[in-house]
Design goal:
Elements: H1 12-18, H2 25-38, H3 40-58, H4 67-84, H5 90-109, H6 114-129, H7 135-151
Helix pairs in contact: 3-4, 3-6, 4-5, 5-6, 5-7, 6-7
Length: about 170
Amino acid sequence: MSEPHTIKVKNRLGDLMRQPGGRSLMEALRGAEKRVDKNRDMFLGALDRSIARMEAAASKLNETPDAEAATEIYKASNDIIAMAGLVGFSALDELAHGLCDLIDALRADGVWSDQAIKVHVDSAVLLRGLRADDEAARERVLDGLRKVWSRFGVESRKAEPPKTEPAKT
């Protein structure tokens, strides 16, 4: 009986990082931050377009479940999750996570609440428009959403806020 063959996978990235003259982790992070800052307007535009998609889909919601509109809102929320963290909008990130979880819970439980979804969409618009220094208003909005999540059995995923929320731009 032959011995099992050992497969050894070479970690090219690790090898490169260990070579003299390579970039340190801190240098790589600073470079990434510069690239995000350079593309900030593009990310904010994508964030705004996702919120607009949510608004358009929410306008189709009523007391009767609308799977297509809910799916579009869910997809736009996922896009917000991807963008909000990049530009420091932790409140929008928390809202989008909560909205996705709410839609999942509504579907799993076989219940429908267009009002619960619409309040998230309205809150996204409100949060995006708040002044950078209005932490109290952001927290009031999120506290209200957390109550909605609790009502539908959704656990809150409170996001860690950045040291400062970004300017409205």
